[in-house]
Amino acid sequence: MSRGALSCGAVLVTSAALFLSGCANIGTEISTLKPVAGDKLTGLNIAVNDVLLAKGVNVLVAPVCTFGTDSYSCAGKTVDNQRIEATAQGAEPETMTITVGGKKLFEGDISDVLTEAGQR
Questions:
Q1: Measured between alpha carbons, how far is 44 from 61 in angstroms, rounded to an integer?
Q2: What's the Rg (C-alpha) of the chain?
Q3: Tens-level pLDDT at each residue, the chain (120 residues)
Q4: Tell me, what DSSP letter sits at residue 68?
Q5: Number of domains within the chain
Q6: Are residues 91 and 63 in the same domain?
Q7: Do 56 and 95 fall into the same domain?
Q8: What pLDDT sits at residue 39?
Q9: Counting beta carbons within 10 angstroms of the beta carbon of residue 37, is it exposed (0 to 12), middle (13 to 18) or buried (19 or more)?
Q10: I need a surface site. Which of 2, 12, 22, 107 has the fewest CB within 10 A?
Q11: DSSP reduced 3-state for 87
Q12: Which residue range forms the structural domain that includes residue 12?
């Protein structure tokens, strides 16, 4: 075997070893990731949109959720210009209330909505 072929083989073996050792660390890196601060906000936003979709609300402006000092609020608009509002109390909300045009559309558990939507 020529010297060039041996060198090429050694480079390939070294590259493969480095690649595989990098892959082994990916699982460790992923497991150390912490949830980001926006998880509750994102979950609420998704749950609100899931309820609106399930209830057949024709949305013009999808609700955007924000966090205030001690509660979450979401605001959007329907195609016939009715205000969509959603609220959830506390930094770790479990329930939400959604109104459309001032009428209560939904009041219930956020995680139940997300679980149900995930099963569709």
A1: 16
A2: 25
A3: 555 554 544 454 555 454 545 555 554 444 444 444 468 999 999 999 999 999 999 999 999 999 998 999 999 999 999 999 999 999 899 999 999 999 999 999 999 999 988 787
A4: -
A5: 2
A6: yes
A7: yes
A8: 87
A9: exposed
A10: 2
A11: strand
A12: 1-33
Residue type, 13: V
Instruction: Dig out the tokens for 11 from the structure.
Output: 């480079």
Statement to judge: residues 67 and 110 lie in one domain: yes
* Listed residue (69, 6, 74) closest to 45, CA to CA: 74
Residue 72's nearest CA partner among 107, 97, 99, 36 is 97
53-90 burial, b for 16+ CB within 10 Å, e for fewer?
eeeebeeeeebebebeeeebebebebeeebebbbbbee
Say yes or no: 28 and 48 in one domain: no
